[in-house]
Amino acid sequence: MDCIFCKIINKELPTEIIFENNNIIVIKDVNPKSKTHLLVIPKKHIESIKEIKEEDKELMGELLITARKVAEEKELDNYQLHINVGHGAGQIIDHIHMHLNSNN
Q: Residue 41 sits in which domain range?
């Protein structure tokens, strides 16, 4: 598989890890669009929201909870969470990930 996020998850590529557990990894975006720009990524390879299965609902909930916890640890009162779905909407990497952005 030639997925950059899978390579990061498997420690084949270096990156700045903000948080990691068995299911989720949070990294700094290499091309930040705001003062704080993090990527919240499930370790399970799912290409897009279009590919989510019923069995993934717990993982997707954990993605949101992890984003909230990281925002709290970073003391971010105001932030944005967004997921791009499809290349036309700005999804560059075919592995679900959520952007956590803040100018705090």
A: 4-102
CATH of the domain at 23: 3.30.428.10
pLDDT in tens, 5-30: 999 999 999 999 999 999 999 999 99
Instruction: State the pTM of this model.
Output: 0.95
- According to DSSP, residue 69 is labeled H
CB hemisphere CA count around 76 (13 angstroms): 21
Confidence band for 104, pLDDT divided at 50, 70 and 90 = confident
Number of structural domains in the chain = 1
Exposure b/e, 51-79, CB count within 10 A at least 16 = b: eeeeeeeebbebbeebbeebbeeeebeeb
Tell me which residues are annotated as active site. 97
Three-state DSSP at 102 gives strand
Contact 20, 26 (CB under 8 A): yes
